[in-house]
Write a structure and sequence with these properties.
The complex is a heterodimer of chains A (about 375) and B (about 425).
Chain A (H helix, E strand, L loop, with lengths): L6 H17 L2 H8 L7 H10 L17 H13 L6 H15 L2 H13 L4 E4 L15 E3 L2 E10 L6 E7 L9 E7 L4 E4 L9 E14 L5 H37 L1 E2 L2 E2 L4 H30 L4 H27 L10 H11 L6 H17 L1
Chain B lengths: L6 H17 L5 H5 L13 H14 L18 H11 L10 H14 L2 H13 L4 E4 L15 E5 L2 E12 L6 E7 L10 E7 L5 E5 L9 E12 L3 E2 L5 H17 L6 H10 L1 E2 L2 E2 L4 H29 L10 H21 L16 H12 L6 H12 L23
Parallel strand pairs in B: 1-4
Antiparallel strand pairs in B: 2-3, 3-7, 4-5, 5-8, 6-7, 9-10
Helix pairs in contact in B: 1-4, 4-9, 5-6, 5-7, 8-9, 8-10, 9-10, 10-11
Classes of the chains: A alpha+beta (about 375), B alpha+beta (about 425).
């Protein structure tokens, strides 16, 4: 039994943490929060130089080919630092979609650009409120030209390249959806406000935008599910990274803050709240490790493991971020304290690739499928 | 990252598997598999007799108390080998019930503090199951606040005279020996006036009364001591050092209780797939699905938390108080699952007879047993204190009785 990251993987985590301590302190995150920057270009430049964008992209496509377990430990550190950069959109979503569904030529063209960070990618699926399904996708493709609106799109005003889900045949079944690659330079893009201003969000308006098919016609929905499963594990590591930081912040504050003549952490009302945060996080961490194992070995269990990691990590991060504010009392509700950075990010990550309720449903579907088999 | 045994672990597993398949009481397998929650089913066979028989068979081949040294009746095995053994022992592990407290708590305490003569006389018989041990710690006035115990031990020549009462003693009625913590000096603060002993449970003046529990069973007892005499040679540790000795016992309690707790998830999952609700199978109901997802995440999280702890053991590390989360999560989960499963049954959920109730009444059994899981071996609240204070380093609660002589601490009326 060796259900733990290796020494080399832990060393990588340490290196990334040191880099982020210097280059992604809360002062840097706040430059984006305050609207001084749309995203943190300097941090992105540093990440490019560090060479970690291509961690799980094979060497033949310009990555380092280190692997998914390595990408998981990187993700955990990015989540801990609430990094205001399009790492997830570009790597977990766009690059994964191209890796899964791209032609040899598309992989050779786009993956090296994404791995180097010269090109920023994203995924555009959502159009309106409600659970995303083939029925809610109205943007159409005709002769490889897209018309319609995607909103909101993560890092939509920054990304150079988008993987876009479009309707390519009548009806509302899965086969009505295909994926396309679109150069966004000619697409109308408007910033939209979101609950987490440290992550750019946009409305994209496509008017006969030139696009190239990614994967076969009618295969889009199935590819998307596979992309989401893989991204779910990676975002789950961001979530436990953030949850860990929120737990540590709450714990430190409870030791230092005195009320009624004693540290507030000595009151059971506070310490039990923090113990419960720890329990949720440990369960999520174990589920994430299982997800990492499934992703790293491309196991048949991946869909179930990914949904488990997603639901568990979403719960833990929301719980830890929410109660971190509670432990801080009124000060936790100020703009000045960093508690809200995690509160915002935890609630954005709870939605970004499908809401928790959708993943709960998928998880039970998959448990049923396993038991029927 | 993988789930494979090392070469050495695989060899150990193969050896254990081969021995078990050649020696286990296979005639009990079908009955043991039918055990419903918190009971052991041995069919027409006597449970204690079969338990002792399997224990002795294992002992003769060196398969009990694996982590103990060989001259104490153990195998000198590593902690990871203990985990592998339990995995391989499978359903037959249910026969270990009467010996768990001896192996997990009393034995290690005797090994740490008794004389060599006593160790040689007691430990091999404990390991073989010939003699069964119980732990006499909790009292009406000292549960979570164990150091508040009042059972008195007074020196009389080379003997001690014991008067008082213990409660929640598992298996006292079939035990040969007991590990007993007493108060020898009430004039000093509570942690300082305690002393540990062991004694024969058939000593004159010991009276055992079973406690009838909420679920109608009687797994626990009250034990009364009236002028019971114990030789000073049966003292463990110095006079006044009983608290320190008890910490050795309790540290082992958490490790022996924490691993592999049932959660009720596989049972409830099976149940909602088959239950025909108002709108078809209950598993299609949105509210049910939300709960299933939550419970699966917890059960799976516990399973792989155990895998992380096993990895630590495999690397020769000792898991710390982190292991406390197992019982905390599993106990709450079982209670919640039981209530939800009954809710889905409507008034039929009130049925208790396994012949009449759904799923052989296992959820009713869980409902009526799970309150104890949240209390025994460290209540939820104590476990949260342990996590907060020993894992996360939060300051302890203010202890108003800490430096007060025991006999000056206020007592309530309950």
């Amino acid at each position: 039994m060796n259900f733990e990251f290796s020494e080399d993987q832990k060393l990588l985590a340490d290196q990334v943490r040191k880099f982020l301590d210097d280059n992604c302190a809360s002062s840097h995150v706040r430059e984006v929060l305050e609207g001084e920057r749309v995203y943190h270009e300097d941090l992105w430049a540093g990440i490019k130089e560090l060479g970690i964008l291509g961690t799980a992209i094979p060497e033949q496509y310009g990555g380092s080919g280190a692997g998914y377990l390595e990408l998981c430990v990187v993700a955990e550190e990015l989540g801990r630092a609430v990094a205001p950069i399009p790492f997830g959109a570009s790597i977990y979503l766009a690059a994964e979609a191209i890796l899964l569904a791209g032609s040899e030529q598309q992989k050779s063209t786009y993956l090296p650009q994404l791995a180097s960070g010269e090109t920023i990618g994203t995924l555009a699926v959502s159009e309106r409120a409600g659970e995303v399904s083939p029925r809610t996708i109205a943007l159409t493709a005709k002769d490889n030209q897209l018309t319609g609106v995607k909103m909101p799109v993560q890092y939509g005003t920054i990304a150079d390249l988008a993987v876009v889900a479009a309707k390519t045949s009548a009806g509302d079944d899965a086969r009505s959806i295909s994926l396309f690659l679109v150069d966004l330079s000619a697409v109308k893009r408007d910033v939209v406000d979101s609950i987490d201003p440290t992550q750019n969000m946009a409305r994209l308006t496509f008017e006969d935008a030139a696009a190239e098919p990614l994967g076969g016609a009618g295969e889009g929905w199935d590819i998307l599910q596979k992309v989401y499963d893989r991204a779910a594990v990676l975002f789950a590591f961001e979530q436990i990274g953030g949850a860990q930081k929120a737990l540590e912040t709450a714990t430190e504050y409870a030791k230092e803050r005195y009320a009624f003549g004693r540290p507030i952490g000595s009151f059971q009302g506070i310490k039990h709240m923090i113990a419960n945060m720890y329990v949720d996080l440990e369960l999520a961490r174990s589920n994430c490790y299982y997800g990492a194992w499934a992703l790293g070995t491309d196991a048949a269990e991946l869909p179930e493991a990914a949904a488990t990691a997603r639901v568990s990590a979403t719960t833990a991060y929301q719980h830890c971020a929410r109660n971190n504010i509670q432990v801080h009392g009124g000060m936790g509700f100020t703009w000045e304290f960093d508690c809200h950075l995690h509160y915002r990010r935890s609630n954005l990550l709870a939605l970004n690739i499908g809401a928790k309720s959708e993943w709960e449903n998928k998880l039970v579907d998959r448990l049923e499928a396993r038991n029927a088999a | 990252m993988d789930f494979e045994d090392t070469k050495q672990e695989a060899a150990f597993r193969a050896e254990a598997r081969e021995w078990i398949s050649a020696n286990a009481p296979s005639y009990l397998e079908e009955h043991l598999e039918k055990s419903v929650f918190a009971t052991v089913n041995t069919g027409p066979y006597d449970q204690m007799e079969e338990s002792k028989k399997w224990r002795k068979t294992k002992y003769d081949a060196g398969w009990t108390c694996l982590s103990w040294p060989k001259d104490h009746g153990g195998r000198g095995a590593s902690p990871i080998e203990g985990v592998i053994w339990r995995q391989e022992e499978g359903v037959y592990g249910a026969l270990n019930g009467p010996f768990g407290i001896g192996e997990g708590m009393c034995g290690p305490t005797v090994a740490a503090f008794a004389s060599d003569e006593h160790k040689q006389a007691l430990l091999p018989k404990l390991a073989s199951g010939e003699e069964i041990w119980c732990q006499l710690f909790s009292e009406p006035a000292g549960g979570s606040d164990l150091a508040g115990l009042r059972t008195k031990a007074e020196k009389d020549g080379d003997e001690w005279v014991i008067n008082g009462q213990k409660i929640w003693t598992s298996g006292a009625h079939y035990s040969d020996w007991g590990l007993l913590i007493t108060r020898t000096d009430p004039s000093v603060p509570k942690h300082k006036g305690l002393t540990m002993f062991f004694l024969r449970m058939d000593s004159p003046g010991v009276e055992i009364r079973p406690i009838k529990q909420v679920n109608g069973q009687s797994g626990f007892n009250e034990v009364f001591f009236t002028d019971v005499r114990i030789p000073d040679a049966q003292r463990l540790g110095e006079v006044g050092d009983g608290w320190k000795v008890s910490l050795v016992t309790l540290m082992n309690e958490r490790l022996s209780i924490g691993g592999g707790m049932p959660t009720g998830f596989p049972e409830v999952f099976e149940f909602v797939r088959t239950l025909d609700g108002a709108d078809g199978p209950a598993i299609k109901d949105g509210a049910v699905r939300t709960k299933l997802a939550e419970w699966h995440c917890k059960a799976n999280g516990l399973k792989y938390t155990a895998a992380r702890l096993t990895t630590a053991l495999s690397k020769g590390q000792t898991p710390g108080p982190e292991a406390s989360i197992g019982k905390l999560v599993a106990g709450n989960m079982m209670q919640e699952i039981a209530a939800h499963a009954l809710d889905l049954q409507g008034l039929s959920g009130a049925l208790l007879d396994p012949e009449q109730a759904e799923m052989a009444a296992r959820f009713q059994a869980m409902l009526l047993r799970s309150p104890a899981t949240r209390i025994e071996g460290g209540s939820d609240e104590i476990l949260r204190n342990i996590i907060a204070e020993r894992v996360l380093g939060l300051p302890p609660d203010v202890r108003v009785d800490k430096d007060v002589p025991f006999n000056e601490i206020p007592r309530g009326s309950a």
